[in-house]
Amino acid sequence: MKYDVLQIIAMGLMVTAAQGAFRLLIDHDNTGLLGWVGGGFPVLLTAYLCVVAVGVVLAGWSHTRAKALGRRK
Question: What keywords were assigned to this record (predicted)?
């Protein structure tokens, strides 16, 4: 059960960060949730892409762990 919840949280994190990255690419002044990071466009885009990567890795890892426990096919 905990891997299911972790996978849902990771996917939500990934989707939110991906939306923020796309929004930043379209409008460079719209910094979104990570606006507090500062450093300008390149730093913010890198931060969003790193959060997306963390979400992807965490979702994949939790899916693999749930599969090993027999919760996935």
Answer: Membrane, Transmembrane, Transmembrane helix
